[in-house]
């Protein structure tokens, strides 16, 4: 059967552009600036220019930030209900103008009207409704939190309006004001949104929209008046942003690239899985960060599956995006076409088989790419590893579930995955083993405002959507009360060793603690540790790069800890507390000798209580079961981050150590810890406590020595998933953040600000656990 053309009218969208002279300034303080230096936005389906946009300069960005700063206190003070009413008005207006927005989006981006009309716009409105709700409930649901302040938001071109909604809705709900930059290829719907903000009664300065390319993005990233950055885009730019913001104290969330596996087991509903795959890789021409771009199909059904898939590909209609029966629209820009073409041709030269539907007519004008299936690629081939970001699927097969998991995780990314099987036990066994922030079971590319979205590994960190997403736009008020630490803790001049009244002190060299065993430092160096009065107290091993490597390896081997039940982990923490209590006086004396603290006994007591506290949390940091409007539930699980490098505070050598290590291990992480550089002997005394407390070897590894040097090694290590640094070194924290960009580790740093480690507000609570976990959202069919 042949379809006749069913074009959507573009009359109103063109009239909207015409009325505005096809030339736009910037939207700052609820007013339009005169257009400055401009660039064109074109329709990728025919290459025709749609409008001229202003390339915002650093001065323009500064004006936008100033406007946002002025507006922020009043916007926050408006209260949850005040903001909710305005956000509700935005949602209503988005629905009212849905068709105009959908057509404008299709013209600017090249994506099909079916998708903008039926997927993007309904989700955009849903986002504003849902987050109007969070504004309303903010005080009740997030007590003790405030808005971050002014947020800079930078989005890509693949879902221009949807990404805008994902960014702007939670930021507004939390009471932040915004400087927003759409992608240079697709700025138009953001400008129409600016008009909607005015109609909805958004006060001046609350939402500011600046257009431009990466240079404008850089100006936002660097601006000192920005308190938080939220970025969606390529991993490459995400890395640059991490580096550029290192040490700035700006909060950061990154939603980056992906190479998501689409796993089909032999017992899957094959027709449904083929249909799901069409949605997964050919939705939006494959220009989707979570596209199911790697098909992993069980060998026994591979042939049947690929045959059906090819038949389905032959029926995909490529053509005018405004035609309501088009499946595949235009790519955003010829530059993307060239990138994709180069990757596919390289695969062909390497001997891969490339399948494209024979009858796929590529229009003469515009930027297009036929749906493509690549078979025969090796697991390390560029097409199997790189984010192609186009309508290109790479297929591979596997034999066993274990092999499927291994292949699925064989990527630097960890954004999403699909698992297809009619055997619910198998699907729910595989889902937790996949390192990805979203797992769809027997479905694909589902999104909802109530469900968190975001990645593991080099796919970034932070979540968008739901409660998890709201947290990204809030800070605990207790953070404001943190004191600035004195620059360097001054120790008295060392006294000669002979001054010690302990005759054995000279022989006492504490070793490192790796894999549950005491280990001599690789470099065979040690350093002397003196008390506050200069008395020689002992020696500690001077750890180096090799020791860190060994410790990380030991931590990886201790993966059984992550799989242990939370109940078991809690038992071990209680046991550590009990054994610490049994030697409480000894620890207090040692702390007093090192620090001259008058609070040493109090510190030991507080540490014991803190161990109880985190033991209590171990089996209570539950996730959530979301009920999105689709038929299904989304189970949001808090998973351990993995291996965390921890640099402890110098002060409170016991309580600081316990306050960081206990929450990390309570939720299943393994840690490599650099204890207080100035007073490390408390940590080395803990070895015996750990040994007698059933803590499996490798869960806590301790490397003593120079905090700066060891932190640097931890931050550059590619097998560490997160790094926490709280020793009060602002420069050290900045360095750690910069180095973390290499493998996009998550960071939690204290900068020059200290924490009152005795305060449960500053050193405990859910905020700490949020640093120790990452949320996996698993979409499960339910009640279908
Ligand atoms: P990109 O990451 O360069 O652009 C995304 C946004 O960042 C745009 O608004 C851009 O103007 C801005 N930007 C660029 N350089 C910046 C900088 N130094 N500082 C601050 N902002 C900056 O993505 P691009 O070049 O458009 O696409 C290239 C590739 O990136 C794609 O082929 C795809 O593989 C990947 N990509 C992934 C996305 C995702 O959602 N995961 C989205 C877009 C692109």
Brief write-up:
InterPro entries: Ald_DH/histidinol_DH, Ald_DH_C, Ald_DH_CS_GLU, Ald_DH_N, Aldehyde_DH, Aldehyde_DH_dom. With 784 residues, the protein is of the alpha/beta class.
Descriptive overview:
The structure is a single chain. By secondary structure, the protein is an alpha/beta fold. It is 42% helix and 18% strand. It is built from 27 helices and 34 strands. It has a ten-stranded mixed beta sheet with strand order 13-14-15-12-11-17-18-34-28-27, sandwiched between helices. The protein is globular and about 90 Å long. The protein starts with 10 loop residues before the first helix and ends with a strand. Residues 32-474, 528-747 form the Aldehyde dehydrogenase domain. InterPro entries: Ald_DH/histidinol_DH, Ald_DH_C, Ald_DH_CS_GLU, Ald_DH_N, Aldehyde_DH, Aldehyde_DH_dom. Keywords: Oxidoreductase.
